[in-house]
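hey so u asked for the seq, here:
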Amino acid sequence: MHHEMPEPVSSDEEEGDSNLTIDEYLIAAGGFGRYQFGLMWILGFGCYAGSIIQTIQLVFIEKKLELEMGPISDLAHSALFLGWGVLSPFLIGFSDTWGRKPVIMIAWFGIIFTSLFNSMCEHPYCFVVSRGVLGAFLGAEESVAYVLLVEFMPPQERGNVTIIISTLSSLTIIILSYCSYILSNYSWRVQLLIETIPTLVLLLFCSLFPAVLLESPRYLLETGSPSEALKVLQQVALTNRVVLPTMREKEYLVAAVVATKDKSSRFWMFFGKELRGKSFAVFFSWFTVTMTYYGLSFAVNDLVGSVYINMSLMALVELPAFPLCNFVINDPRCGRRGAQIFFFMVAGIALVSLAVFDESYSTFLALVGKFGSSAAFAVVYLYTAEIFPTTIRGTALGICNVFARTGGIVAPFLTEFALPVTFTCFGSACILAATSTYLFLPETLGKSLS
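ran it, structure tokens below
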């Protein structure tokens, strides 16, 4: 196969360049420059905003939906998470074979199509099934977008970027609460149509300007396409207005061969001696944080006050959580591991406390639980991307989605019980997740992605 070779370099330059890692080349290409900043808005805010809107919107249209189709809201919520957990891993897994960018584009197209179909459904079970298909595309979009974003970031910026997009997601919920209130006089079908706009804008923008969404150079390197990886790095450097150091293609070929030699047994690596304990802790953390985070959102109708105000408060309480999270995960005394344990314990203790206190404290305890679970969510995303190696990172996120959305499926049904029972279930799971993190997970702060 013919590759376009880089410019020749001197032996001194060759010796120096051969010691550089892909993270160091990303730093040489501008680090967190103009390209990474734009990518953060496209994938971070764009994808996550669309995902949050699609997931939370049913809370606001629940009564209108049930007037027309009957009591199907809980079933529709669970169907969304079922598709997210069962179907999306197959599409996510293809990101390790086809590439990150193609899967993201396919997911955007699928979200738009299924959302439009959602808004035109006349039969309740047709609506529920289409929500499940929508969940598959949402899961693929969110997970693969995050993997691509992290793989473009130098190690010291990954934590900061995760916190920024988590903060933007919380602001999205506040904006969604306000917009849903403004649109409350319109049909639920109109509201579902409007929520497709962010994804449609993303798809059109990235199709018209393909240079804004490039394939991961790390993925290209691992799959034996060093020349393509070099072209991407050169494009990133050009966007960031820096000159990339000259590199030898041979270095990329060697790295690619070493990294891809065990790909045939990719799935079984999670159950091997090295990853078994880590996999258990990570998968259970995803199950718990998703169940708790969305379970508290679904329970807002059981709290005192307006559903729009309650949901806004749930989002507002996340905003101070993320700056604190950013400080904790980057502090060597705590790091990723300590942060995850701390925030799971905050949520767990607050929610279990409702079994002792009067239900009049339920709103306050729910907000504290939301504070802890939202911060834990941000840590879990970052931690997972750093724990698993590049060759199985997309597959790892896919499996995590299975466990996460299983938690999402369970959450709506747990909210049918009395609040003390519901909160105790959520809180107990958070405490167990903190314990498994302490027992099985290593610290990853400041380490390069393997």
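The radius of gyration is 22 Å. Residues 1-19, 252-265 have pLDDT under 50 and may be disordered.
lmk if thats what u needed
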